[in-house]
Every structure is written in C-alpha cells, then in structure tokens.
Amino acid sequence: MVTGSLLLFVSTIMELMDILLAVPIVLGWIGGLFINYAADVLPRTRHFSQPVCQNCAAPISWPDYLMLRACRSCGLWRGLRTWLVQLLVVASFVYFWLNPPRALGLPLSLIVLLYFALITVIDLEHRLILFPTSVFGAVLGLIVGTSIYAQAFGYPLPSALGASLLGGVIGFALMYLFYQLGALLTKYRARRLQIAGHEDDGEEMLGGGDVYLAGILGLMLGSRFIINGLIYGILLGGLIGLLLFIAFRLRSNSSGQALMTFIPYGPFLIAGAFIMLFLG
Q: Could you tell me if residue 208 is inside a domain?
C-alpha cells in the first residue's frame, strides 16, 4: 500500500515536471521564430515588415512563415540558419529554465538571450549591428546593469544606476580606441587591395556598430565587469582570427589572403558578455 502510494506520488511529480518543461520549450520556439523573423526583415527594411522569400523576394504569408513552410513562389525551403536558431534557442531556454542565473533572474535572462542571439545572427550574416537594435539594447542594458548591481551586490538604486552608466562609458571608450586602430588597418588593407588590382570593398576591421555594442554590454556588465567581458571577447576573436590565418596559410601558402579577411566582431563581444553574465 505504501509502495503503491509512493509510486503514484513519483509518477504525479514526473508528469508535472513534463508539463512544466513544456513551458520553456514553447517559449523557446516562439523566441526562435522572433529571432529568425527579425534577422530576415530588419537588415532589409530596418523595421518590422512583411517577410519575403530570401531567394525570389516574393511575400510570404504569416501562416506559411510561422509554420516554416517552403516559399509558394519558388519552392525554396527555409535555410539551415532557421532550424539552428530554433533548436539552439529552445535548448537555451530549457537549460536556463532549469538553471536560472542568480544575478539576472529567469525573465530578464531569457530576454537578454534573445537579444544576444539576434545581434549574433545579423552580424554573422550581414556584418551589421543595426541602430534600432542598438537603441533597444541600450535600454535593456541599463535595466540589466542596474538590476544586477542593486539586487546581486546590494547597491542603492542611484549607485547601481551609476555603475551601469560608468560601465557603458568604459565599454564605449575602449572599443572606440580599437575602432580608431582598426581604421588604420582598414586603410592599409584598401591600399593592398589597390596594389593587387582590386577595388576597395569597403570592409572595416571594426564597425561603428561594434563601438555601440561595447557600450551596451558595458551597461549590462557595469564598471566592475566590463573590462573582463571585453578581454574575453577580444581573446576569443583573436583565437578565431589565428585559426583562420592558419587555415588560409595552409590552403594558399600565403598570409596575404588571411590578412585581407576581416571577421565580424560583434559575436565575440557577445560571447565575452555571455560568459560574465551567465557563466561567471
């Protein structure tokens, strides 16, 4: 009798856990749809608009878009990025639902995750950090930074706000210095391209959006952690750059192609902030 009651209790708890686990799965799937939609339309129109096929530019109906169906005009199915984003966002939501970061709390953590994912996808695909996402990021960053310093470190609200703002200034200023250095390297690259008989493609080592992003991440991390966050991001970017240099060198036996190839830096800054906010 006791054994039967215990088994029933355990079974009920397991069913309840399964039901509760459906919540982050559904939320993650919706969040992934939003990231994919925003990454599809914002670089093209700079505002939320009707989705179109990335191949033939035919408008896609909302039911077809949300159900991830193929384009009715050209038959093109949604790309690999769409499915990766959906799966990774769902997995992230489930993980942090079960292991919520103490400093941020669950709701704010999930919003930050979506923001980080959107910036990463757009920058990887288009090498753009858009002004609308920067404005939203600044507001979000101020809320996140103030919340962390007020709740996790016990700062009075004015001091917590000040720590967040100071972190934003530090992040912006430091990345602006790197931006100026990058401008010199960009000019050197343009001359090398001209010497080789190619037109300047306008690529920048660091864009202005990276400077704004560093300021946003500074707002989130505040004055105590922004330098560490930037160091993590720079080290990760340097490691990937080194690996690309080695790969180009092995393939072409020349370092010129590697030196002329710039990589989007926003995802590495995001990675550094992610380490500090979610793993630190």
A: yes
CB-count exposure of residue 247 (10 Å: 0-12, 13-18, 19+): exposed
Sign of the torsion formed by the C-alpha atoms of 24, 28, 34 and 35: positive
Q: Are 222 and 145 in contact (CB under 8 A)?
A: yes
In the block, residue with structure tokens 């391209």: 193
Q: Is residue 267 part of a domain?
A: yes
Q: Using CB atoms within 10 A of its CB, is residue 57 exposed (0-12), middle (13-18) or buried (19+)?
A: exposed
Q: What is the DSSP string of 61-97?
A: -HHHHHTTPPPTTT-PPP-HHHHHHHHHHHHHHHHHH
Location of structure tokens 């919540």: 23
Domain membership of residue 118 (yes or no) is no
Question: Residue 173 sits in which domain range?
Answer: 101-107+124-280
Q: How many CB atoms lie within 10 A of CB 82?
A: 19
Q: Report which residue type is found at 125.
A: E
- The DSSP string of 227-270 is HHHHHHHHHHHHHHHHHHHHHHHHHHS-SHHHHT-----HHHHH
Alpha carbon distance, N-terminus to C-terminus of the chain: 48
CA atoms within 13 A on the CB side of 238: 7
- Number of residues assigned to the chain: 280
Q: Which of 81, 73, 36, 39 is nearest to 53 (CA)?
A: 73
Question: What's the pLDDT tens digit per position in 186-206?
Answer: 777 667 666 666 665 566 667
Output the 3-class SS for 109-121: HHHHHHHHHHHHH
Whether 4 is covered by a domain: the verdict is yes
pLDDT digits (tens, 9 = 90+) for 22-57: 899 999 999 999 999 999 999 999 999 999 998 898
pTM: 0.86
